[in-house]
Specification:
By secondary structure, the chain is of the alpha+beta class. It has one helix and six strands. The protein has one domain. Strand 4 and strand 5 form a beta hairpin.
């Protein structure tokens, strides 16, 4: 997966894996990709769009995603 937040991870949202661990500037975050795919569909995400998935620390100190705050960052444009 991506080595840092400066190198985004490319994922398949048509047939998503169940869970993916993403590297953030605050450490690893486990993300339910099926929930991300649902949000992406609601936002009308295109093939080359970039999503922002915010997270927070839970009571155990784990970094967890906030699926209600996922947003479309920008259109990345067609890449070859």
């Amino acid at each position: 997966m991506g080595k840092s937040i400066d190198e985004p991870t490319t994922v398949n949202l048509v047939d998503p894996v169940a869970e993916l661990t993403l590297m953030t500037d605050k450490g690893p975050m486990k993300v339910n990709m099926k929930r991300v795919a649902e949000v992406a569909k609601k936002l009308g995400v295109d093939k080359f769009d970039l999503l922002s998935i915010p997270g927070h620390r839970n009571a155990r100190g784990e970094l967890v995603p906030d699926y209600d705050l996922i947003r479309l960052e920008r259109k990345a444009g067609e890449q070859e």
